[in-house]
Amino acid sequence: MPGPLLNQQTAVITGAAQGIGFAIAKLFVAEGARVVVGDIDGDAAAKAAAELGGTEVAIGVRCDVTSSDDVDALLAAADSAFGPVDVMVNNAGITRDATMRTMTEEQFDQVINVHLKGTWNGTRKAAAIMRERKSGAIVNLSSLSGKVGMVGQTNYSAAKAGIVGMTKAAAKEMAHHGVRINAIQPGLIRSAMTEAMPQKAWDQKMAEIPMKRAGEVDEVAGVALFLASSLSSYMTGTVMEVTGGRFM
């Protein structure tokens, strides 16, 4: 039997105190990684790290991904605790849904900054470390909303589409340095946020899914593990949809 897929690797995951990010962190630990949980809520990050097994395998660090200094500090904390980053997962995100008519400029800027600038900060800062070692994997979380557009999400759809373009451009820049950069586009994933949707909206989305069910956070985590590990060693600049076949 082969060993764990991420044995002794240092993985940094933003927005990992809950939801998809926490599911990724949990699976990475199970596959032998030492994980740094980055989150805007430092207390929640510390609590998540404790749930993952404590300081031997995980630490929590407060990080505002829109601040390059915070991202530098996050990666420095990872290096200090476990060694230089081997895997970077840019997962942090927020929603500020509203139609264009009612969306404020602040709501637009907030979403663009967290998703797009935050992913850019995480990608460029991690890549700078990885290229020196000629190895590393970066996984960026986009969304189906960045492929098809969603009503009330001109900010979110724009940011998530931008992450795809950024991933491909960065992948081209870093491929000859041994650094792979890929993206995931989840569809309707069962979480506290999606389960708070009005029933009508939930039913409408479900009707668009050939597999006739919502996805689970663990199913996104499995794809993140694949892209982070040697299983995907000849893949870079790809976008993997985890959608149950929605909008094929």
Question: Any overview of this molecule?
Answer:
With 248 residues, the protein is an alpha/beta fold. The protein has a single domain, classed as NAD(P)-binding Rossmann-like Domain (Rossmann fold, 3-Layer(aba) Sandwich), CATH 3.40.50. Helix content is 46%, strand content 15%. It has nine helices and seven strands. A seven-stranded parallel sheet has the order 3-2-1-4-5-6-7, with helices on both faces. Strand 4, helix 4 and strand 5 form a beta-alpha-beta unit. Helix 1 crosses helix 9 and helix 3 packs parallel to helix 4. The protein is globular and about 45 Å long. The termini are far apart. The mean pLDDT is 96.
Task: Provide a quick synopsis of the model.
It contains nine helices and seven strands; from the N terminus they run βαβαβαβαβααβαααβ.
Task: Give the helices and strands as they follow along the chain.
Answer: EHEHEHEHEHHEHHHE
Radius of gyration: 17 Å
How much strand?
15-25%
Average pLDDT for all residues = 96
Going by CATH, what is the homologous superfamily?
NAD(P)-binding Rossmann-like Domain
Q: Enumerate how many helices there are, as a single number.
A: 9
Strands ordered across the widest β-sheet: 3-2-1-4-5-6-7
* Number of structurally distinct domains: 1
* Strand elements, count: 7
Structural class: alpha/beta
Coarse shape: globular
| Terminal CA distance | 36 Å
| Helical proportion, percent range | 40-55%
CATH topology: Rossmann fold
**Which regions are unreliable across 5 or more consecutive residues at pLDDT < 50?**
none
Task: Please tell me the CATH architecture by its name.
Answer: 3-Layer(aba) Sandwich
